[in-house]
Each structure stands twice: as C-alpha cells, then as structure tokens.
Amino acid sequence: MKIAILSRSRRIYSTARLLEAAQSRGHEVRVVDTLRCSMNIASHRPSIHFGGEKLEQQDAVIPRIGASITFYGTAVLRQFEVTGTYPLNESVAISRSRDKLRSLQLLSRRGIGLPVTGFCHSPDDIDDLIKMVGGAPLVIKLLEGTQGIGVVLAETRKAAESVIEAFMGLKANIMVQEYIKEAGGADIRCFVVGGKVVAAMRRQAQPGEFRSNLHRGGSAEVIKITPEERSTAVRAAKIMGLNVAGVDLLRSNHGPLVMEVNSSPGLEGIEQASGKDIAGMIIQFLEKNVVSQKGSTRTRGKG
Questions:
Q1: Which of 25, 29, 182, 188 would be a feasible disulfide site paired with 249, CB 3.0-4.6 Å?
Q2: What gap in Å lies between CA 262 and CA 94, rounded to an integer?
Q3: CATH no. for residue 157?
C-alpha cells in the first residue's frame, strides 16, 4: 500500500513513528511537507504536486496538520480526498475539531458532558458571562490557542474582568469555562483509534500550574479509565467524525467532562506512558479500511 504522511518534518516523533510502523509492515511510505504541496483543481484530472512534480496516486494519507496551518493543510487533504485517496481523518472532521466553539456546541447537542462554557461578543456582557459559568475562579481560553497557549486561570472576579476586557480590546475571540477544582490540575488523554480507546494516560500539572500539557512540564502515567469515561471518549471522537483522536477529559464530581478533541494527537507521551505501539495500531486500522472504503469518502458526524 502507498501511504503519504502529511507532515512538516520526518524528524517529528509522531511522524517518525508512523513512518517506521508503516515501513515495518511492508508499505511504501512518503513524508510530504504540507506547505510544499500545490494543487491542480480540475474536473477531469485533479492532482497534487509536491516539490514541483506531480505526486503519484496514494492509497492512504495520514494528516499530521499543525494548528497554525489548518486552513492550508485541510485544503491539501481535501485534494487528496478528491483524487480518491483514503484519509485517516477527513478534512471536514479536522476543521470541525479545530473550531473550539463549534466542537463544544456539537458535543453539547449530543449530550456529552462539558465544563459550563460561556461566549459573548460585547464588553457590556462580561458581567453576565462570568455569572454564566458560576463566577471565579474560571478559565479563559483563546479560541485560536493550542497546547495550553492562550489559557488563563482567573482566580478572582476582578482578575477575570481585567483579562476578558484585555482580550476583547485586542479583538481576540475567547470563551470562558468553569474551573473544575476537583480535577486537581490533572486531565486524562484517551487515545481513540477506530472507535476504541487503545490507551489512556493521566497528565498532571506541575505544582502551581493548572495546565497539564506535557511540554509544559506536566507528568504522565498510564491509568485505568471507567466505562463511562471510555464511552464518553469514543462518542466524542465519533461525533467529530474522527477515526483517530486524542480526547481530553476532566474528572468532575458529576462525571467525565470533555475539554477538547484533538485530531492530530501526539504519539510520544501516550506511547511512553502506556508502552503500546500506537503507531502500529494506526497503520493496522488503515490496512483494514483502505480497501473496503476506497473511493467512498464522505463526511461523518454532523455540523
């Protein structure tokens, strides 16, 4: 099988592991720099060019699209879909998951547990916005933020008002969420492949920090999740339409709450914590699905 991995560099851990796993199973794999791709959009012979040359037809494509290049990356992925290449995750599903507000609205509509979330446009509505999520402490998030960047914990009402006003003054889109104190600065990353949670880890923030991202010094350990947490993670990935996803959960007094559904979850932390060959599982999923669904790509989920 011919597989293209859309990634900025083959030296990135996740890309390197996927390349290794695919090659070890006898596949022909090529790492394609997303931003070096150009597209010939035509009715009869649509094609993709890479590095100035036409890219040969691929059987499957694994998108590893960074948040900063979502627009162009999903455009390239759509072109692969147009040419009949099977995507590990579809372009529409990735776009859907990258829109924080839209994804929460979709999850809410299907009854998935979420932190109480508020969103408004006018500075005149800040008071109501803070009341909406139960007052301080509360979490303020940039809609365009990623990997913990643009996430602020406001411990007092005055601090919340100041931060929200500052973001609004910069014309930045933000949402406000209730602070789940009982989570204790920890979250759970559930790694979903093909409708199953194949591994889960608990990520704990450093003392004095509430963001548990590993690259911010957080620690990770393998964890046994409850049936409700497993079901929530699987349902969230399905609602987004993602075959592979990292679903981040918080343990609250009223059950698991979804923080985010990541369409390009990193492999390093989960593989090291669990000791499992997650990259190999992803390639096995492709092997089972490429032949049966080739040429029938369609958007799953709604919205």
A1: 188
A2: 8
A3: 3.30.1490.20
